[in-house]
Design brief:
The structure holds two protein chains of two kinds. Chain A is built from 13 helices and eight strands. Chain A is an alpha/beta fold. Classes of the chains: A alpha/beta, B alpha/beta.
Chain lengths: 293, 220
């Protein structure tokens, strides 16, 4: 990938800042999402909550479905490839969607290597639980990062954990004297040059969204107040009782995340949220965030 | 009520999109700049930038809290407007295949006219009214301006479309000057707003980097 192409891809993510990216499984949902003010849609066959329930191997969605969604909306369309499955990514690039999510929500195709994203023209977003993981993905060519959270649970606790972890590690790095950076980079598995960038900027060098368990307007605003640049909502919208209304409310809450009166206003009378899962009692094999490294 | 800071400066509509990038450019030009989230934030401003982002999202958020009405009202009272990319779509009187939104400048726009993100691109061009030398331009899932009505001056025409235009009170660009080291369009808009700005239009800002926006990204 040429340097200017990478920059254009990082800059598209900049244009999504302050917005909500919504999972959709058909054309009708994509139109509801766009109408509600989503900045992009993630086109997939099953939302994470259903992937979780149904089990089996979760793969890239049928390109025919993604194509139909792409034709139905004007906002950017993203789709998921399995971790390490560079051929799924090649197919999604050939489909000319706007962004690929190399996602732990799908069953990993490679337990050692993520996709070499520098070989693609199309941008990638990748999940991360901590600073080291985020910077390894950026070193591989990711133009945008999101927290992993714990997708399909409707439980924001893991997204909070991952955001707080990144923030804490960034603060630690920022405070280090120059001679301790190499050691910090070694311990955390961070490419040295990127460690220097983060130390200088005091934040990740790409746009960072929150994802994994966001189900209410308050969840979205919580993640924004913790310092992320925008949010992904997976199962949280279309697994609730009134998706259009909830989608609009989460869009407003993300824009006015710092305004409790607006948050109060948009949180009222939304109907039932998606049913949630307690992450603490889940077996480790059921946790998606542990996929990838 | 929020206190009104820096009267006479330029605001950046802060609902969604490339807000920090514009704030950074305005500060480099030496203009008092602030984000605008509510109608009250418009008070005392000479100009308002509607940034790039997603136009459907921005239009929904403008509707919800009646900011659109407040912007129209301020415009009637002399507020100058500049729309970049999605902002240009929102300001256009005609939006091909869709309903117009603010409809304040007599242009027709065609959304996503270049295709998907893989069709986003950089190029250089000379806009003689704005800068003496060619400047870098960044197009991201850009619209095209396909018609400029009476009273609208074309500032930059490329291939089969108009990339920048203005009337007496509104500037529109389908590209993103805030994503490049060129400050020329920000200076041009500041002067359009009647603000006194120094500096050479031709030059690029040597201190700007693609990550300069991050200094405004700490919102807690």
């Amino acid at each position: 990938m040429a340097e200017n192409r990478y920059l254009l891809n990082a800059q598209l993510a900049q244009m999504l800042k302050g917005g909500v990216i919504m999972d959709v499984v058909n054309v009708e949902q994509a139109q509801i999402a766009q109408e509600a003010g989503a900045v992009a849609v993630m086109a997939l066959e099953r939302v994470p909550a259903d992937i979780r329930k149904q089990g089996g191997v979760a793969r890239m969605s049928d390109p025919g479905l993604i194509k139909a969604i792409k034709e139905a909306v004007t906002i950017p369309v993203m789709a998921k490839a399995r971790i390490g499955h560079f051929v799924e990514a090649q197919i999604l690039q050939a489909l000319r969607i706007d962004y690929i999510d190399e996602s732990e929500v799908l069953t990993p195709a490679d337990e050692e290597c993520h996709i070499d994203k520098t070989r693609f023209e199309i941008p990638f977003v990748c999940g991360a639980r901590n600073l080291g993981e985020a910077l390894r993905r950026i070193a591989e060519g990711a133009a945008m990062i999101r927290t992993k959270g714990e997708a399909g649970t409707g439980n924001v606790v893991e997204a909070v954990r991952h955001m707080r972890t990144m923030n804490r590690e960034i603060r630690q790095l920022t405070a280090l004297p120059a001679e301790e950076i190499m050691s910090f980079a070694k311990v955390n598995g961070i490419p040295y040059e990127l460690a220097l960038d983060v130390k200088k900027l005091g934040r990740l060098p790409v746009v960072n969204f929150a994802a994994g368990g966001i189900a209410t307007p308050a969840d979205a605003a919580l993640m924004m107040q913790l310092g992320c640049d925008g949010v992904f909502v997976g199962s949280g919208i279309f697994k609730s009782s009134d998706p259009a209304r909830r989608a609009r409310a989460i869009v407003k809450a993300t824009a006015y995340f710092n305004d409790p009166e607006q948050l109060l206003d948009v949180s009222m009378d939304l109907g039932e949220p998606m049913a949630g899962l307690d992450v603490a009692t889940m077996a480790s094999g059921e946790r998606l965030a542990g996929r990838g490294w | 009520m929020d206190a009104v800071a820096d009267p006479g400066g330029i605001g950046v509509l802060d609902l969604q999109g490339g807000v920090q990038e514009h704030l950074d450019h305005l500060r480099r030009v030496g203009v008092a700049a602030r984000p605008v989230k509510r109608a009250a934030d418009l008070e005392g401003l000479a100009g308002l930038i509607i940034p790039g982002g997603e136009s459907t999202c921005l239009s929904r958020l403008l509707n919800i809290f009646s900011l659109d009405k407040a912007i129209r009202q301020a415009y009637d009272q002399g507020l100058k407007l500049w729309g970049t990319c999605a902002g240009a779509i929102l300001l256009a009187r005609e939006n091909i295949g869709e309903a117009p939104f603010l409809g304040l400048i007599d242009i027709a726009v065609n959304r996503n006219a270049f295709g998907s993100q893989l069709d986003s691109f950089n190029r250089e061009a000379l806009a003689p009214t704005v800068a003496r030398e060619p400047i870098p331009l960044t197009f991201i899932r850009a619209p095209k301006i396909v018609r400029a009505g009476e009273g609208v001056r074309v500032l930059l025409r490329l291939d089969d479309y108009i990339a920048a235009a203005e009337d007496d009170r509104i500037l529109v660009t389908v590209f993103h000057p805030e994503l490049t080291p060129s400050l020329a369009f920000h200076r041009y808009f500041a002067r359009k707003c009647g603000l006194d700005v120094a500096g050479d239009d031709a030059g690029l800002d040597p201190d700007w980097t693609p990550l300069s926006w991050t200094r405004f990204s700490f919102h807690i």
